[in-house]
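sorry for the late reply, my laptop died twice this morning and i had to redo everyting from scratch. anyway the thing you sent over, i finally got around to it. pasting the sequence first so we're on the same page, its 198 residues, then the predicted structure underneath. double check i copied it right bc i was rushing
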Amino acid sequence: MHHHLRQATKQPHHALDHHPLLAPLLRSDLTVAQYGNALAALHGIAQRAEEGILAFLDQHPQLFDYQSRRKVWALNADLAALGREPMALTTPFPMPQSVAALIGVLYAIEGSTQGGLMIVRLLQALPIAPLPTAYFRIYGDTSAQKWHDFLQFANQLRSREEIDTATATAISAFDAIHGHMQACLSQLAAHSSACESA
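ok and here's the structure:
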C-alpha cells in the first residue's frame, strides 16, 4: 500500500515541496513573515482535514486513533505567537466516506509531519529570533512510530478497488493542498500590493 501511494503521489508531492509558500521553510534566509505565511496557509487544510477525519471516525469508533494526532491546536498556538491569523480553505478537500478514502487522506496529512523534526532543526539554526514550532514538533520523538502505526493500518487494504480509492483520494488531497497554496499565494501578493499602495 505504501509503495502504491508513494509512487502515485510522487509528482504532486514534489510540486508541494517546491511551492513558493513552503520551500522557504528549508532555506537559511527564511523570514518571520514567510514562516507565518506558510503556517497561515497550512491551517485551512489542517482544519478541514481534521474535521473530515474525525467526522468519519465518529461513525466508526475504534477504527483508528486520531485524537492523539490532532494538529490544528498546534497551528493555532504558533500563529497566535506570531500575531498572525489563519487563512481560510479556498479549495474543496476530500472528505473520507470509506476506510480506503480515509487512508488516502491520512497519507497526505500524516506524511506531511515526517519532515517536521528536520524543519525544527533548521529553524533553530536560523539567525532570526526563536520561532514557535508546536506544529512541526507535533509528534516529537514518536514521529517514526506514529508513521509506522499508520502504515500498519493502511496495509489492511487488499482489494484493487480499495487500493485505487485510497490512491485517488491521496492524489485529490495533494491537488487540493496545492490549489489552496496557490490561492493563498495570490491573496498574500494582493495584500502586499495593497499595503504598498496605501
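The radius of gyration is 17 Å.
thats about all i looked at so far, will dig more tmrw
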